[in-house]
Amino acid sequence: MCPGDISAITTAVQPSGPLADLVEDAKCTGTNQITDGPHDPNDEFYNEPLYTARAKIYPQHVTGTFRRVKWAVLFVTLGIYYFLPFVRWDRGPNAPNQAVLIDFPGRRFYFFFIEIWPQEVYYLTGLLILAAMTLFLMNAVAGRVWCGYLCPQTVWTDLFVTVERWIEGDRREHLLRDQQPWSFERAARAALKHFSWLMIAWWTGGAWVLYFADAPTLVKNLATFHAPFVAYAFIGILTFTTYTLAGWMREQVCVYMCPWPRIQAALTDEDALNVCYRYDRGEPRASLKKAAVLHEHGQPAGDCIDCLQCVHVCPTGVDIRGGPNLGCIQCGLCIDACDAVMTKIGRATRLITYDTDINIRQREQGKPTSFRIVRARTVLYAAIIALVGAVMTYALTTRRAEAVNVIHDRNPQFVRLSDGAIRNGYSVHILNKTLETQKFVLKVTGLSDVDVEVIGGERSPTGEPVIEVGPDQTRQVRVLVTTHQRLEPEASLPLTFIVTGDRAGTSASVADHFLGP
Ligand code: SF4
Ligand code: SF4
Fold first, then answer.
1. Looking at residue 6, what is its pLDDT?
2. From the CB of residue 250, how many other CB atoms can be counted at a distance below 10 Å?
3. Distance 331 CA to ligand 1 centre (A)
4. How does pLDDT run across 454-467, given as a tens digit for each residue?
């Protein structure tokens, strides 16, 4: 049954109550799963198997606006992914000059002018919140626009399908060849295709590991087999996953494996743009010849000529005329295909188009359509993005190049010396995020008659403990704080540790306690 049949149902049955709502919903969505009574055991819908084997999809080449957008996104995203590790960024003599580097041995993440330390991993939390909110906002505005254009699975599958088309020919040629018995030519084409896919997959895995070490050096080491085993292992794993996911599994990842279609289906609303078939215009569908006959007999015929071009170009094999479908990644290629058909037969384009559920209903009622981008959820998502972005920008621009952390000894918490003085021990970590060696003077405030000693440390000419920390390094020292001050029983006095570097205006402090008997 097709959406055209739905109009027939609504005219003939004229249901009321909840059934009327179902019919209304189906009219909006174009689904055909409506009954007006006990279900027929012979009904195809109720007898569909729970599992059907995958039918291989041969997506047909298409040109048009959305295809061009997809090409642009593919070139930009893959260009960034493959070549970014080779971009250099001068940070001075004591730091790597790779613009984007995840330095596990040095425990740093470098992103152009930003350097994230392990203690600042909260930036990652901010980034994850930003990514989630951006995805939600995209979904609220234009449905699965992420899936259709930006998702790595979509981008790599698109690339693999393009290579396949170059080698095996477009849909018709490829279909015919697959039906023929194996020949030398068919085997050679298949071998070339899989070799090309493996090369792309191998380069994809290779590019990934380049983000974890100096890229030019690692390339040289990989080529001369001097790279660490883990680099070869990860290239192997990513070659296998890319080849399998983009070459073999393709749309099955989107339909069966990815959770996002289910999540976005719960998040979306009737104001979000989605790829829709305008059944109000297209139905009842009829070939050009059949439409002419229908018109002769004074019967209506819709704009859809049932040419199936929209289905043939679909990378997931969906017939969008059946209504919203979890398999539809909303890439817009069926819009391009249908527009080409409509242009050819001299009818208005956008029989398939990006539209909202509300607009479909409005059109049905002869009311004007509109698109509301400013709604509670888009404003909320945008506000959260702006807020988190502002907090992260503030934190990044005002972060200090020095930091100090202190851990009080757990056992013993204090020691009484032979002269009656009380001593507490601490582990002090000093972080020097600058790219020069710094000498930090350590002071402790909050106690009178106090002596501060750094084990193995030096002293300044004025007698204060001095700790040298190398460029872009952390140093841990053991510090003993001793006081002759008279303490109350079970005293716990607040202390402040202050470190002052030898660069102008560089200091950091942290609070702790001094414990007495
Ligand atoms: S139905 Fe159209 S928009 Fe959806 S995946 Fe297929 S081609 Fe893309
Ligand atoms: S491409 Fe357009 S005209 Fe052809 S079947 Fe699809 S919706 Fe109908």
1. 34
2. 25
3. 5
4. 998 889 888 889 99
* pLDDT tens, position by position, 147-193: 999 999 999 999 999 999 999 999 999 999 999 999 999 999 999 99
Asked whether residue 511 carries a pLDDT value surpassing 60, the answer given is yes
Q: What band does 448 get if pLDDT is binned at 50, 70 and 90?
A: confident
Instruction: List 499's β-bridge partners, or say none.
Output: 442, 508
**Nearest residue to 198 (alpha-carbon basis) of 168, 163, 233, 169:** 163
For atom 7 of ligand 1, the residue with the nearest CA is: 314
Ligand 2 within 6 A of CB of 329: no
pLDDT for position 44: 59
DSSP E strand boundaries for 213-367:
274-277, 352-355
pTM (global) more than 0.85: no
Report which bound ligand comes closest to the CA of 149: 1
Report the distance separating Cα 242 and Cα 233, nearest Å.
14
Joined tokens for residue 261: 């279609």
> Of 1, 6, 3, which Cα lies nearest the Cα of 278?
3
Task: Among 67, 329, 353, 355, name the best residue to mutate to test ligand 1's pocket (greatest count of ligand atoms within 8 A of Cβ).
Answer: 329
Which tokens sit at 507? 């200091």
Distance 72 CA to ligand 2 centre (A): 26
- State both tokens at 24: 């209304």
Q: Ligand 1 mean position to 33 CA, how many Å?
A: 21
C-beta of residue 140 within 8 angstroms of C-beta of residue 377:
yes
Distance of alpha carbon 432 from the chain centroid:
33
Residue appearing with tokens 């204090």: 414
Identify the pLDDT of residue 2: 37
* Bridging pattern class, strands 465-469 and 458-459: antiparallel
Ligand 2 pocket, residue 310 CB under 6 Å: yes
For residue 16, pLDDT over 70 is answered with no
Longest dimension (CA), the chain: 116
* pLDDT more than 90, % of the chain: 69
How many Å lie between the centroid of ligand 2 and the Cα of residue 454? 80
30 vs 106: CA distance, rounded Å: 57
Asked whether residue 46 carries a pLDDT value surpassing 70, the answer given is no
What residues does ligand 1 touch, defined as CB less than 6 Å away?
A: 275, 313-316, 318, 320, 328-334
Ligand nearest to the CA of 303: 2
Ligand 2 touching residue 318 (CB < 6 A): no
Instruction: Check: CB of residue 495 under 8 Å from CB of residue 447.
Output: yes
Q: How far is the CA of 382 from the centre of ligand 1 (A)?
A: 27
